Amino acid sequence: MGAHINHIALACTTFFLVLTQWSSSWPVDDPTLGFLELPLNTSNLDIQRPYDLPLSERYSFVDGVHKLWVYFTDKPHSPESQTHARTEIRIRGYDYSSGVWQFEGYGYVPCGTANVTIMQVFGASPHATTLMLRVGSNGTLTYYRTVVLDPYIYDRWFRVNVIHDVYASHLKVYIDGVLKLEAPGRGGKFHYFKCGVYSQPDGSYYMESRWKGIKVLKKCD
């Protein structure tokens, strides 16, 4: 047993060193410069969860941290929905169809949560979303299922900044102040931000993410 634990500890240490080396060469920026933070309170946070469960069974807010969890076998957020299970914060009051908008938040995903979307820019055409940030089965953070933004996101707080320029049809994603992705928009007449856990078809049995410091910002004119 002791040898097994030492092997795990060595593997984790080795991976941490690789991760540090992978990320340290990227320049760090403040993506909020030139943006105005908009007022945000509990009335702007609509918690979508399995329709047959009380809020307290899939969401908590303690010491400034939103904890959202869901099981793969849970029902969708409404009886009419054909989507997979979710517990997400849907930001209301700031739906947008023009301008340059930004989401900022600090996320945390515990090891074992896999194949789940943790942040979305909703609204597109003909698709449903303009952006999805997804955690894979090996702890990677990806743009949809394609570009790897971070090779191992588990068990640590990380800062997420997503900028959406509607007119230019352009997105930027920063992780911990580092620009990791620029991508084209995907159309659509209106958009809004979401964060939490939204199971994908191959999602893990239990899925969880935590969020704090959530902000909505708009580019100063």
The overall pLDDT, averaged over residues, is 89
Put simply, the count of helices is 1
The computed structural class is: mainly beta
Net shape: globular
Quantity of strands, as a count:
15
- What share of residues is helical? 10-25%
List the helices and strands and how they pair.
Blueprint (H helix, E strand, L loop, with lengths): L1 H23 L10 E3 L7 E4 L10 E4 L2 E7 L14 E6 L8 E9 L7 E7 L6 E7 L5 E3 L3 E4 L7 E8 L4 E6 L2 E7 L7 E8 L6 E14 L2
Antiparallel strand pairs: 1-15, 2-5, 3-4, 4-15, 5-14, 6-11, 6-15, 7-8, 7-14, 8-9, 9-10, 11-12, 12-13
For this entry, give a set of tags.
mainly beta; 1 helix; globular
Give a written overview of the molecule.
This protein has one helix at residues 2-24, and strands at residues 35-37, 45-48, 59-62, 65-71, 86-91, 100-108, 116-122, 129-135, 141-143, 147-150, 158-165, 170-175, 178-184, 192-199, 206-219. Residues 1-24 have low confidence and may be disordered. It is globular, with a radius of gyration of 18 Å. Strands 1, 3, 4, 6, 11, 12, 13 and 15 form an eight-stranded antiparallel β-sheet that branches. It has a seven-stranded antiparallel β-sheet with strand order 2-5-14-7-8-9-10, with no helix packed on it. The protein is mainly β and 221 residues long. It contains one helix and 15 strands, in the order H-E-E-E-E-E-E-E-E-E-E-E-E-E-E-E.
